[in-house]
Design brief:
There is one protein chain. By secondary structure, the protein is of the alpha/beta class. It folds into 2 domains: 290 residues, 3-Layer(bba) Sandwich (FAD/NAD(P)-binding domain), CATH 3.50.50; 121 residues, FAD/NAD(P)-binding domain. Helices cover 31% and strands 17% of the residues. The strands form 6 sheets. A 5-stranded parallel beta sheet has the order 3-2-1-7-19, covered by helices on one side. It has a 5-stranded parallel beta sheet with strand order 8-17-9-10-13, covered by helices on one side. It has a 4-stranded mixed beta sheet with strand order 6-5-4-18, with no helix packed on it. Helix 2 packs parallel to helix 14 and helix 10 runs antiparallel to helix 11. The longest helix is centred in the C-terminal third of the chain and has 21 residues. It binds flavin-adenine dinucleotide (FAD) and NADP nicotinamide-adenine-dinucleotide phosphate (NAP).
């Protein structure tokens, strides 16, 4: 081990938005921190997901950092929903602007992390063969970063190229004239299919479960709008942080049943005409009351029928699950592609895939010869990238074993038995049920403030109290049970990954969560045990 590495205060795993801001904060505190990143560049999600049509679904003016007023004033987004390429450039710009590049080791995976109890240090083994030691470890490994590869017979041996949307080739893929099969109908498929349909000779979409999607109505940003918003950017951000999803969704404080059927219908039309995820905040009970949810479901059903010419096909595209219990998708002309002769839908509920044989996707109802297969099959969300690292805590206990019956983490920030190990947007925090950039910033700031507090007070280690963790996990579940979220087989529940325990993982509600985090600190890190001289 080199001299420089011996003295590390913190190792941050991952160089997405969480990892790069974490590095910046730790350096501002004068700490010797290093980021280890599996990819060859920064950006995380926006480095890996280079499929055609990849964009954010939270408007860019909100899906961006706010920790630096200069940064948020000087950066110019070109579109309402920025492209993957533009968001990646932004991440690279942040790294350059704050001089972070020399703190990141690329092309290196953290394979394992072991807590050395006698020295109260973490020892990490890297794919490069190196071993690093640090007092703190921050898992900034991402909620949606470990691709989920379906277990389909013959997939690994098939004779055509297979691309996962979450690990897309950097050089891009030209589908011109090809017969393409897309497996999955989540956000990644819904964003990419309309563009692939333009190139391909034929596009066959294999749908296991239909999803709700609302138009994005993406457009170039109006400079006057940007100027006006930037004149009150700080205040605007602060207001949004008080809202349920931490984003400007124009949240209503009315129930769906406080208005007449006609008024509700008019309001749904208005929201639809604006497009985007803000639809979910149209009434304050939409994601809490099934009856309210049903009114929106009926509306979506009609909208799908308006967009798809063939009524039988439209019927197959209508979900039966509550709106919102899987993440609402935001599209540009998704349903319309089904009006084109060369685009086909295969309903896997009726005719499941039995195998992929050479260049043919075989279902119980037919055979589909393809030149390329796209796996838009999502991610082992929230826990996958964390348990992918062999993490061994106190008493030799492995995190993989601890979390096998479902992840447990206090505030989603840390987990009992693993001292001085923090998680950014971990299970039990709003994370994926919020605008993730501000949620990442809140976690990074909480963690760096905690480390600063420990250093100022000569604390050596911070441990989660087991009972506090149990209570928090119960609370996360209780809140979830008041909503429609646990009502379907979503990745929020771990239901998309074979063998994964079904537990609702994110915390619903940004404001109460932030308040709780602040209370914990004000009460001297309540629910944590600080050891050392302090
Ligand atoms: P990531 O960006 O996932 O970065 C994690 C990094 O850790 C990766 O680079 C990975 O290579 C690295 N890593 C993981 N394990 C290891 C290891 N063992 N060793 C070394 N490196 C490792 N959220 C929103 O709020 N709004 C949106 O519009 C939105 N759009 C999205 C679109 C797509 C296609 C996807 C997949 C997600 C989207 N999200 C969105 C969620 C998005 O993941 C977050 O907004 C955010 O980018 C996450 O940043 P992160 O740094 O926490 O994680
Ligand atoms: P996803 O939402 O999990 O969708 C995966 C799709 O693949 C689902 O339709 C799923 O069906 C299907 N699938 C999985 N395994 C399958 C199998 N073995 N056989 C057949 N079908 C299978 O994944 P995603 O589309 O990549 O999106 C994940 C999340 O990333 C989103 O929810 C969102 O948070 C984020 N994202 C955002 C955007 C954006 O608009 N900004 C774009 C992409 C992703 P089931 O539903 O039946 O499991």
């Amino acid at each position: 081990m080199s001299e420089a590495n011996k003295a590390l205060d913190a190792i941050v795993v991952g160089a997405g938005f969480a990892g790069i801001y974490m590095l910046h904060r730790l350096r501002q505190q004068g700490l010797n921190a290093k980021v280890i990143e599996a990819g060859t560049g920064v950006g995380g999600t926006w480095y890996w997901n280079r499929y055609p049509g990849a964009r954010c679904d939270i408007p860019s003016m909100q899906y961006s950092y706010q920790f630096s007023e200069e940064l948020q004033q000087e950066w110019e987004w070109s579109e309402k929903y920025a492209t993957q390429g533009e968001i990646l450039k932004y991440a690279e710009h942040v790294v350059d602007r704050f001089g972070l590049n020399d703190g990141i080791q690329f092309n290196t995976k953290v394979a394992s992390a072991k807590y050395l109890e006698d020295r109260e240090m973490w020892q990490l083994s890297l794919s490069s063969g190196e071993t690093l030691e640090a007092r703190f470890v921050v898992m900034a490994t991402g909620c949606l970063s470990k691709p989920n590869y379906p277990n389909i017979k013959g997939l690994n041996e098939c004779s055509v190229p297979v691309y996962h949307t979450g690990a897309w080739p950097h050089e891009g893929v030209d589908f011109t004239g090809l017969n393409v099969g897309v497996i999955g109908t989540g956000s990644s498929a819904i964003q990419s299919s309309p563009i692939i349909a333009k190139q391909a000779n034929s596009l066959t979409i294999f749908q296991r479960t239909p999803n709700y999607s609302i138009p994005a109505y993406n457009e170039a940003l109006d400079p006057d709008y940007v100027k006006e918003l930037k004149s009150r950017y700080k205040e605007y951000r602060a207001e949004n942080w008080q809202r349920g999803f931490g984003a400007d969704f124009d949240d209503s404080d009315q129930s769906a049943f406080e208005v007449s059927d006609d008024e509700r219908r008019t309001e749904y039309e208005k929201r639809w005409a604006k497009g985007g995820l803000a639809f979910l905040a149209v009434y304050n009970d939409l994601v809490f009351d099934m009856k309210a949810n049903d009114t929106a479901r009926e509306f979506f059903k009609e909208k799908i029928a308006e967009r798809v010419n063939d009524p039988e096909l439209a019927e197959k595209l209508v979900p039966v699950t509550p709106i919102g219990c899987k993440r609402l998708c935001v599209d540009s002309d998704y349903y319309e592609i089904y009006n084109q002769d060369h685009v086909k839908l295969v309903d896997l509920k009726q005719t499941p895939i039995t195998e992929i044989r050479g260049d043919t996707v075989v279902t119980s109802g037919g055979e589909y010869k393809v030149d390329a297969i796209i796996l838009a099959t999502g991610f082992d969300a929230m826990t996958g990238a964390i348990t992918n690292v062999d993490i061994q805590g106190e008493g030799g206990k492995k995190l993989q074993d601890k979390w096998a019956p479902g992840p447990k983490a206090y505030l989603g920030l840390a987990t009992a038995g693993f001292p001085n190990l923090f998680i950014v947007t971990g299970p039990g925090s709003p994370s994926v049920l919020s605008n993730m950039l501000p949620s990442i910033e809140q976690h990074v700031e909480w963690i760096s403030d905690c480390i600063e507090y420990m250093n100022d007070n000569q604390h050596v280690a911070i441990r989660v109290d087991q009972q506090a963790e149990e209570d928090w996990v119960s609370h996360v579940n209780e809140v979830a049970q008041t909503s429609v979220y646990p009502g379907c087989n979503s990745w929020y529940m771990g239901a998309n990954v074979e063998g994964k325990t079904r537990v609702f993982m994110p915390y619903l509600g940004v404001p109460p969560y932030v308040e709780k985090c602040e209370q914990v600190v004000a009460a001297g890190y309540e629910g944590f045990v600080l050891s050392g001289n302090g």
